[in-house]
């Protein structure tokens, strides 16, 4: 009986060892895989890389926009002023943009105003240069011929010329104007100007008066 019991136990142990070896050979070695997993680096997938690149690009875009608004708020003077309507709150992007637009429009108006002032000053400078040249020519002519002033006409002669021109114009004016009513007077004045104040007509009048005064002097 003792011999039979030892033989049965030996058979059971032998079968157990056989099953264990078979099971061990069929099951993967998890210890080796764990060691390999910790040794090899994690390989990022294409989708993860693309998501990470998109996140970084979006963050850069937001940082650039924020920096742009901060720069505008620092450059535009009206953004630095206290806005009592919003208190001490930070200016919104819409307010910063509107204040920037208003400031740019103000600068455009100031630029146009300054350009007009510069244009006016340039015209004044040009006129002064012309006057300077004329005065220099007059001074030079007087220095070259100091006796020329003695032959100038007197104020009386100038008045006679003016009087002769006005007398001639008044004769045509008196003959053409009717004073029956103010409307008729106005119409006659305009018609007289168009008829008797033409450049050629005035030139003929002045020439006639000058000849008359010349004959009286000489």
A few lines on this structure:
This protein is an all-alpha fold and 218 residues long.
Protein traits:
mainly alpha, 8 helices, 218 residues
What does it look like?
There is one protein chain. The protein is mostly helical and 218 residues long. The chain has a domain at 155-217. It has helices spanning 2-26, 30-39, 46-75, 77-80, 93-144, 155-176, 182-196, 199-217. The longest helix is centred in the middle third of the chain and has 52 residues, at 93-144. The protein is rod-shaped, with a radius of gyration of 55 Å. Mean pLDDT is 77; it is low at 21-27 and 30-39.
SSE inventory with pairings:
Elements: H1 2-26, H2 30-39, H3 46-75, H4 77-80, H5 93-144, H6 155-176, H7 182-196, H8 199-217
Which percent range fits the helix content?
over 70%
Largest sheet: none
SSE run: HHHHHHHH
Determine the N-to-C terminus distance: 185 Å
Number of strands: 0
Summed up, the helix count is: 8
For the CA atoms, what is the radius of gyration? 55 Å
pLDDT below 50 for ≥5 consecutive residues: which ranges?
21-27, 30-39
Inertia-based shape: rod-shaped
Strand content: under 5%
Residue-averaged pLDDT, rounded? 77
Going by helix content, strand content and strand pairing, the class is mainly alpha
């Amino acid at each position: 009986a003792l011999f039979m019991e030892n033989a049965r136990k030996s058979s059971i142990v032998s079968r157990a060892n056989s099953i264990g070896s078979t099971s061990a050979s069929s099951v993967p070695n998890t210890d080796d895989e764990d060691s390999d997993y910790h040794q090899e680096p994690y390989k990022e997938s294409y989708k993860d890389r693309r998501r990470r690149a998109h996140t970084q690009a979006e963050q850069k875009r937001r940082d650039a926009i924020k920096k742009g608004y901060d720069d505008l708020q620092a450059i535009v003077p009206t953004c630095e002023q206290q806005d009592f309507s919003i208190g001490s709150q930070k200016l919104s992007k819409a307010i910063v943009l509107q204040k920037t637009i208003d400031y740019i429009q103000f600068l455009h108006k100031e630029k146009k105003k300054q350009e007009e002032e510069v244009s006016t000053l340039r015209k004044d400078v040009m006129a002064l240069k012309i006057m300077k040249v004329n005065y220099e020519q007059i001074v030079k002519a007087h220095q070259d011929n100091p006796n020329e002033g003695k032959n100038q006409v007197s104020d009386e002669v100038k008045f006679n010329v003016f009087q002769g021109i006005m007398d001639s114009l008044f004769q045509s004016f008196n003959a053409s104007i009717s004073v029956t009513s103010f409307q008729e007077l106005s119409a006659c004045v305009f018609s007289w100007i168009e008829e008797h104040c033409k450049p050629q007509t005035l030139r003929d009048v002045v020439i006639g008066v000058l000849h008359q005064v010349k004959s009286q002097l000489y």
